[in-house]
Specification:
The protein is α+β, with helices and mostly antiparallel strands and about 700 residues long. The strands form 5 sheets. A 6-stranded antiparallel β-sheet has the order 8-7-6-11-10-9, sandwiched between helices. Strands 13, 14, 15, 16, 19 and 20 form a 6-stranded mixed β-sheet that branches. It is elongated.
């Protein structure tokens, strides 16, 4: 019994084509019988075979009763029912049709039973043709069994080829199926050639077996006297039944292939949507002539190959367009960043061969920012189509613009969410934005429904960084004002920040947390160079396949260069902005460590925090925190806190009322020297700490 599930792969959905000029030329009609509705549709050639006018047939099989004798109808019904019951993929039968004038003519039908995934029959598609000339009742009664077996064998050739072609996505896939040695054996041919029509010429794209190519025929004009050209010109099969006929009709080609001992040949036009897209030639060395059944099989095979080629060409055109759009929307180049090594990668999805779906909304971006800062973005717009890519391009641009304008990471994300919501689209997006200060290693991270980042340490170990997140971008209208909390992490020299989309993590049937664990383990054992690591990760994604695209960004912080005189970091801190205050503290801590002042880090951080707090508490404006290295008579680290108030701070001694001003006692005790400078309409409170030379202490 045939495999019920395999029948759905036997033929393309639209085979045989309606109308197909090749079928018409061979006086064959086609039908499509929907077993769910009971309707049986036929093309014009089938109407002619049944001697029916279009208005005489309403699509119901019962309407054929005047043309099919009762006994013949019962026999056909029983044959079809038995084929369905046996699980067969096809059936064939001769039966008689009563013409309008009352005469009976023999007709032949070949049907293909299409089933769904459960094995239930849903459609029967096939062909009918007038068989009166080749049969009479005596021949039918004696040879029906033998002919049915032969036809099943011939039909299997088409079915096997069609099943293989059903998996072909590209033109090269189709060529590989046609060139397959097993396929040539089934067809019985000695050699095969396949050409495609391009700008009035036929370009040979396949031959088999190797070594049978005829010099000078790689590219030929359609008007040249070759059998393949004739098939394309006339849109008709060119059957050559003997060596004598070959030599007489095509002497130029025959003189070059006499060594192949060809005795017959069949050149089939490959026609799609009534236009030739190519031709295939099959050459035989063990036969003379072609029976009607053999011609029908070859014509059907040519039709299947033509449809597969057209589908593959359309797929490649759509893929080229989609990939071009994807590349246009992604950054063309990634800027080099002082103080970091960066690697980015993108892998397109492979979604079951569907046209236009090898593209998605995943993207990455790297945004240079003032003050040795850089913004890293990873995101994923919902969907796998050109619309997702277009939305992604717009979202990438506005994120870059908002970040370049100097907004905080939380504001960048919130504004991007509002922008996406106001677009004429129903798509949402997940995103992660990380703003890294490469001089200090402070990284502020904002997450909108995206997966967490990973950090790989200098020793190769990798960990997942849990980041508090908000809703995906584009959902602000449904859920009101969106808040995006900011998380802070420190990226030490030699550490790598890894951002990716879920296509690198998610696998069917695997929990996301398990996927993240598997990814961290892979990174643990991966190479240290970010480009090599990115190649390994994207190669793993390609080997695994999957129906989601992958975007990947790796940023490795380099060890800072040796400090120079005038080395300077600055942070603006507004009143009531705890994020900026936290970032200033991280900046000071990282500067102290990287500039060789670890031994005094506690003192410096405590004094700096006191100066910042005083500025915010006793003035109405913001504060500007500056950390710099001074060279000269001894190396010093200087901290300045500038505000807009001209009122000078006053140190209070013990015993005075209140506690205000006593923080300056702490500054006086811990700092080597401190003071106040007038700055325009405001002032700057500064302090300095002696720190060892970086070259002697191993710092920097």
């Amino acid at each position: 019994m045939a495999d019920r599930g395999a029948s759905a792969l036997s033929l393309p959905e639209d085979w045989p084509a309606h109308p197909d000029p090749v079928l018409a030329l061979n006086r064959m009609g086609s039908f499509d019988w929907d077993l769910d509705t009971g309707l049986l549709s036929m093309d014009a050639q089938a109407h002619e075979i049944f001697d029916l006018r279009p208005e005489e047939y309403d699509g119901r099989p019962e309407s054929l009763t005047p043309r099919v004798p009762r006994a013949e109808g019962h026999r056909l019904d029983a044959l079809v029912a038995q084929a369905i019951k046996d699980g067969r993929e096809n059936y064939g039968a001769y039966f008689r049709v009563r013409r309008r004038d009352g005469t009976l003519r023999w007709t032949h039908t070949q049907g293909y039973i299409r089933r769904d995934g459960t094995g239930r029959p849903r459609r029967i598609i096939g062909i009918v043709r007038d068989a009166t000339e080749e049969l009479d009742e005596a021949v039918v009664s004696r040879e029906t069994a033998a002919q049915d077996a032969a036809r099943r064998g011939q039909t299997n050739v088409v079915q096997i080829a069609t099943a293989a072609l059903a998996h072909a996505r590209t033109v090269q896939d189709v060529i590989d199926v046609v060139k397959d040695t097993h396929g040539l054996t089934l067809l019985g041919s000695t050699s095969m050639v396949l050409g495609l029509v391009e700008a009035g010429r036929i370009r040979l794209v396949a031959e088999g077996p190797a070594g049978t190519f005829v010099p000078g025929t790689r590219i030929t004009r359609i008007e040249e006297p070759y059998p393949m050209s004739e098939a394309v010109r006339t849109l008709s099969p060119c059957f050559i039944e003997s060596p004598e006929e070959f030599a007489d009709r095509f002497p130029a080609l025959w003189g070059q292939i006499t060594g192949l001992r060809i005795t017959a040949a069949a050149y089939l036009p490959l026609i799609a949507q009534a236009r030739p897209i190519g031709a295939m030639g099959l050459l035989y060395s063990d036969r003379r002539g072609f029976s009607r059944e053999e011609r029908d099989v070859l014509v059907a095979l040519g039709s299947s190959i033509a449809q597969s080629l057209q589908r593959a060409m359309l797929y490649e055109q759509e893929k080229d367009l989609a990939q071009g759009l994807q590349q246009a929307m992604l950054p063309r180049t990634i800027p080099s960043v002082r103080g970091a090594d960066v690697a980015v990668r993108y892998r397109a999805a492979t979604v079951g061969g569907a046209l236009g779906r090898d593209i998605g909304g995943d993207w990455y971006d790297l945004i240079p920012l003032p003050g040795e800062k850089v913004g890293a973005v990873i995101g994923d717009v919902q969907g796998h189509d050109t619309h997702a890519a277009a939305v992604m391009g717009q979202l990438r641009i506005v994120l870059r613009a908002y970040a370049a304008e100097g907004h905080t990471p939380a504001t960048v994300m919130a504004r991007a969410s509002v922008f996406l919501r106001e677009l004429d689209t129903d798509r949402f997006a997940t995103c992660l934005y990380a703003e890294a200060d490469l001089s200090t290693g402070v990284v502020q991270v904002v997450r909108a429904g995206h997966i967490d980042p990973l950090v790989r340490h200098a020793d190769g170990t990798c960990r997942r960084v849990t980041v508090e997140g908000g809703l995906p971008l584009g959902l602000s209208a449904e859920f009101g004002r969106l808040e995006y909390p900011v998380s802070t992490l420190e990226l030490d020299p030699g550490h790598t920040l890894l951002l990716c989309t879920d296509g690198l993590v998610e696998q069917p049937g695997v929990d996301l947390d398990d996927g993240m664990l598997a990814l961290t383990a892979l990174i643990d054992s991966g190479p240290g160079e970010v480009r090599d690591l990115a190649d390994r990760l994207i190669r793993m994604a390609e080997e695994r396949g999957g129906d989601d695209d992958v975007a990947l960004l790796l940023l490795r912080r380099r060890a800072p260069e040796a400090p120079r005189a005038g080395g300077r970091l600055q942070q603006h801190v507004a009143p009531g902005d705890p994020e900026a205050l936290t970032q200033a503290r991280h900046m000071i801590r990282a500067a102290v460590r990287s500039w060789g002042a670890r031994d005094r880090s506690d003192e410096i951080e405590l004094v700096a925090d006191e100066l910042i707090t005083n500025a915010l508490m006793h003035t109405e404006g913001s504060a500007i925190v500056t950390v710099r290295v001074l060279e000269g008579s001894g190396r010093r680290l200087r901290v300045e806190v500038e505000d807009s108030s001209s009122a000078l701070p006053r140190r209070r001694d013990a015993g005075e009322n209140g506690v205000s001003g006593r923080g300056l006692l702490l500054v006086d005790r811990l700092a080597d020297v401190w003071g106040v400078e007038a700055r325009g309409g405001g002032k700057a409170v500064w302090c300095e700490f002696a720190v060892p030379d970086a070259t002697r202490s191993g710092g920097g």
